[in-house]
Design brief:
By secondary structure, the chain is α+β, with helices and mostly antiparallel strands. The chain folds into three domains: 265 residues, Distorted Sandwich (Beta-galactosidase, Chain A, domain 5); 258 residues, Glycosidases (TIM Barrel); 103 residues, Immunoglobulin-like (Sandwich). Helices cover 18% and strands 37% of the residues. It is built from 13 helices and 43 strands. The strands form nine sheets. Strands 7, 8, 9, 10, 12, 13, 15, 16, 19, 20 and 30 form an eleven-stranded antiparallel β-sheet that branches. Strands 31-29-28-27-23-22-21-32 form an eight-stranded parallel β-sheet. Helix 6 runs parallel beside helix 7. It is globular and about 80 Å long.
Length: 708
């Protein structure tokens, strides 16, 4: 039995499908209901219905081996015991107007049991439910791993998509064999949610953890069902007995739309997170040169060669840009870190010369790994600050053949101080404009068990809290006008960095989507898009596709090697990059401080372009995109912006209609059109749809301002 409420949603929580208990709550949708059903087929707890306002049940059959939660316990004499919802015997149901608490006992030993409570609360303003889990443990037992929530029976249907927070975002076809593993926080899981969607309706599964604890988000798909699992870890030296609580709420529910609409649910949560309180870019203390920047070039050559190419770049691009300087140190790249000093001869003078040309300089360092063959490893005993696995061993990684570098613990004060020292020296002794610290926002976390570091052993905040403390120490050594940036977009550090370099989104069978800007636009500065290789210039379209998406997704464009973009056979690609960078100058109110409102369909003369491209780490991938890409933005003053990028060698006449502005069509607005050289036209009109011609290998920005 179900009960409908006009403009309300219902959460049905019951012991079986034939005795549902209904809780009315307000819904984000205008009608219908959200229905959740917990049953006990086969004598264990089962999640059997998740029905949204459209009547679709997102869940399939719940088999006898499926679970809703799992806890791994460690007890006396190091005994390890796994308990799951399949072992639970329901002992009580506590009901209030907006929640259900299901209490169950689970045997742990011969004469011991845990009391596990699953609490489900109704959302006040969305078609969501919030899930939490706690366990009262017998004396001598502690939780060392938890899997919660587990959704083992998401229904797979033709056309089902999944959005995952990998880099910019990836869209998966949910079909047999699909797999996603995201180690949070990292580029693989920059945020803590996924979304499934099809035919304008979706299922949202979010982990609303405001502290950003270490966890893994795991999704698998079979022929008929897909599964979601969030796995976390607790410190092994935590006090035994007492009550363990999974340290976050899981948000599960339905929504109308696609990945963008799911991102708005998660976006609302992020304002309560530790990293989400820094405020908008317009009010954050970010160096103004970085906010004003539109183009990044990079080099890996000698200082003298870099200077020659930099002068050519200034002559060609004709505007100030920023320079990401790799290999400025005498040691080889990815070897002998952290022995960056002394730099190569000419570096200090090169910084001064570049700045004299109006170029802001940002050198590379690595904040995560150290070489046991480095000078400082021996002289300063850096092995003390390295990550120690549970067996006491280090965790080496290889980036150059036969050269192993060890991962360092970000919570070790010695390592925090070392990276702060290097960063401060670059800023004060060499006068750089910014310091780029590699890997912090990209590489996944490890569990460290070194008691000398002063953190809980194997604790889930060793990574997040450790790096946040390190970054505070670094910031204390930098002048206010010096920027701090990192690789990739792990969200829990965004308030500590001034900008994030996004380049690791895979070139694979999955489709990149602007999931990250859908959540964090206007609150972070991004640059780059994906790695750009020589083959991208040679094939041309792969380069243009990367730069066009960087432009319409709000990123500072480029992050390409000067030697590649200035090559004689890259003239068309260089022209496209220059036009994008020049045009972007006139849209900072949108792409720097505004909110991304999603992609638009540019209709008209807009054929699709397809080609094979060189994948980042070998092989090929396929590109299939509209020739003209378009996105919509909202400025802080209420103005609407549309960004268009034309990848083709011919001008294209297209029509764009900003979403959500139909109601304003009767009021006059000022439409301004900007190109690479500035304002092209301005007119008052009541028409929301605009037809424009985007020049070949170029871009336009449309601004709709005010109304009468």
């Amino acid at each position: 039995m179900t009960i409908g409420y006009n403009r309300l949603a219902c959460i049905a929580l019951g012991l079986c499908l034939f005795a549902m208990l209904l809780v009315p709550v307000r819904a984000a949708t205008k009608s219908g209901e959200l229905r959740l059903a917990l049953g006990r087929p086969g004598q264990h707890l089962a999640f059997t219905q998740l029905v949204g306002p459209d009547g679709r049940n997102w869940l399939g059959a719940f088999s006898g081996g499926d679970v809703v939660w799992k806890l791994v316990l460690k007890g006396p004499n190091n005994a390890v015991k796994e308990i799951t919802s399949a072992d639970a015997r329901l002992s009580a149901v506590d009901e209030t107007a907006s929640r259900r608490v299901l209490s169950a006992t689970v045997p742990v030993g011969e004469n011991a049991a845990a009391l596990v409570k699953l609490t489900i609360r109704a959302s006040k303003d969305r078609s969501l439910s919030y899930w939490s889990l706690s366990a009262a443990l017998p004396e001598g037992w502690r939780v060392i791993q938890y899997d919660f929530p587990v959704l083992p029976n998401i229904r797979v249907e033709k056309g089902l998509k999944m959005a995952a927070p990998y880099g910019w975002g990836l869209e998966y076809d949910v079909k047999q064999g699909m797999a996603y593993d995201g180690a949070y926080p990292s580029a693989c899981a920059a945020m803590q949610f996924v979304a499934f969607y099809r035919d304008g309706q979706g299922l949202y599964v979010g982990i609303h953890d405001p502290k950003g604890r270490q966890k893994s988000i795991i999704v698998r798909a079979g022929a008929d069902l897909a599964s979601f699992d969030c796995r976390g870890w607790a410190a092994v030296d935590a006090k035994a007995g007492g009550t363990f609580t999974v340290p976050f709420d899981a948000a599960i529910g339905t929504f109308a739309g696609d990945y963008y609409d799911a991102a708005q649910i998660y976006r609302d949560f992020t304002f309560s997170a530790d990293w989400g309180k820094a405020g908008p870019v317009s009010k954050r203390v970010i160096p103004q040169w970085l906010k004003n920047n539109d183009l990044w070039l990079m080099s890996e050559l000698s200082p003298m060669a870099d200077m020659r190419l930099a002068r050519q770049s200034v002559d060609y691009f004709g505007q100030p840009f920023s320079f990401h300087w790799y290999r400025w140190h005498q040691i080889p790249q990815d070897v002998l870190f952290p022995d960056y000093f002394p730099p190569k001869p000419g570096f200090a003078g090169g910084v001064e010369e570049l700045q004299g040309m109006g170029i802001d300089v940002m050198p590379y360092i690595n904040g995560r790994i150290a070489d046991p063959n480095s000078r400082q490893w021996s002289s300063e005993h850096l092995e003390k600050a390295a990550v120690k696995l549970e067996n006491g061993s280090l965790f080496p990684e290889e980036y150059v053949p036969k050269a192993l570098l060890d991962v360092m613990c970000p919570s070790a004060a010695q390592w925090q101080d070392k990276i702060a020292e290097i960063s401060g020296r670059l800023a004060t002794q060499y006068g750089v404009n910014g310091v780029y610290i590699d890997q912090i926002g990209a590489a996944g976390p490890l569990r460290c068990f070194d008691p000398s570091h002063g953190h809980p052993l194997g604790g889930d905040l060793v990574w997040t809290d450790g790096y946040r403390t390190m970054l505070d120490k670094i910031r204390g050594r930098l002048p206010s006008e010096v920027a701090l940036t990192t690789e990739e977009d792990a969200e829990c550090y965004i308030d500590k960095f001034d900008a994030q370099l996004l380049v690791n989104t895979p070139t694979s069978e999955q489709t990149p989507i602007p999931l990250f800007p859908s959540v964090y636009s206007g609150r972070v500065v991004t640059f780059g898009f994906q790695y750009v290789g020589r083959g991208d210039f040679r094939r041309s379209l792969p380069f243009r596709a990367k730069m066009a998406r960087a432009f319409v997704w709000g990123s500072q464009v480029g992050w390409v090697r000067t030697v590649d973009v200035l090559a004689p056979d890259s003239a068309d690609e260089a022209e496209f990059l220059r036009n994008l960078a020049h045009c972007r100058r006139f849209g900072h109110q949108f792409v720097v401080t505004g909110k991304f409102l999603g992609m638009l369909d540019a209709q008209g003369d807009n054929p699709r372009v397809q080609c094979d491209a060189d994948a980042t780490f070998g092989g090929l991938y396929k590109i299939d995109l509209p020739t003209v890409l378009a996105s919509q933005w909202l400025a802080e003053d209420g103005s609407i912006g549309v960004l268009l990028a034309n990848m083709s060698d011919e001008p294209r006449s297209v029509t764009v209609t900003p979403r959500g502005t139909e109601a304003k069509s009767s009021a006059k607005s000022t439409f301004r059109i900007f190109g690479p050289d500035g304002l092209i036209s301005a007119a008052r009109t009541t028409s929301v749809s605009q037809t424009v011609t985007v020049p070949a290998r170029s871009a336009l920005i449309l601004s709709m301002e005010g109304k009468e």
